[in-house]
């Protein structure tokens, strides 16, 4: 098991609502990346945070936003939820931003109805 | 643009037989290549990576992968498959240029089924 934890494990929300997902990174890791994994797909990069600043973003709309805290834990916020936002959201921590192997949490399964 | 292809959606092998899960890539500059495994209802687990050096990389659980620059491939291999190896395998790549080129791009995954 990695030291990366995510909460909650599962979540059901209604279209139009807002959601916050949380991630605690592995000890000593200052970089957190968030991914969306739809059923039957590979992970899609949402964004990365390094030392509390956004450090790269994938092709996701602005209603996907994030934060990283001084202890390097992180939040993913999604506003105005859409049905297509239903997916497994994965958090990964790494010791550096660039190309280091990433250690993944178990994910949060979000269902939007 | 960077891309990763895993040409097989599913691979079936008998326990004890060798297995290969294929991956090809397209990236600017020298590639960094990774293999991850995902068990049902679990996050992804790092298996191995190629950065530089020996083209044959050894990783966790007896897996290895061979980097072939001319064929732009990074196939995952194991000499003798176990039923417990049954899972979803992802290949990922990043480039060596600045900016988002360094972010990991993921394949769609290959489902490995090892039959007893």
Provide the succession of SSEs of chain B: EEEEEEEEEEEE
Strand content of chain B: over 45%
Cα-based radius of gyration of chain A, to the nearest Å: 13 Å
* Helical stretch tally of chain B: 0
Largest sheet of chain B: 6 strands, mixed
Overall shape of chain B: it is globular
Number of contiguous helices of chain A: 0
Strand-pairing-aware structural class of chain A: mainly beta
The best one-word shape of chain A is: globular
Structural class of chain B: mainly beta
Question: What is the average of the pLDDT values of chain A?
Answer: 92
Which percent range fits the helix content of chain B?
under 10%
> Total strand count of chain B, please?
12
Distance between the termini of chain B: 41 Å
Biggest sheet descriptor of chain A: 7 strands, mixed
Order of helices and strands of chain A: EEEEEEEEEEE
Number of strands of chain A: 11
Helicity of chain A, as a percent range? under 10%
Q: Which band does the percent of strand residues of chain A land in? A: over 45%
Walkthrough of the structure:
The complex is a heterodimer of chains A (113) and B (116). In chain A, strands 2, 4, 5, 6, 9, 10 and 11 form a seven-stranded mixed beta sheet that branches. Chain A has a four-stranded antiparallel beta sheet with strand order 1-3-8-7, with no helix packed on it. Chain A contains no helices and eleven strands. Chain A is mainly β. Chain A is globular, with a radius of gyration of 13 Å. The model of chain A has no long low-confidence stretch (mean pLDDT 92). Chain B is an all-beta fold. Chain B starts with a strand and ends with a strand. In chain B, strands 2, 5, 6, 10, 11 and 12 form a six-stranded mixed beta sheet that branches. Chain B has a four-stranded antiparallel beta sheet with strand order 3-9-8-7, with no helix packed on it. The chains are: A mainly beta (113), B mainly beta (116). The interface between A and B is medium-sized, with 26 and 23 residues.
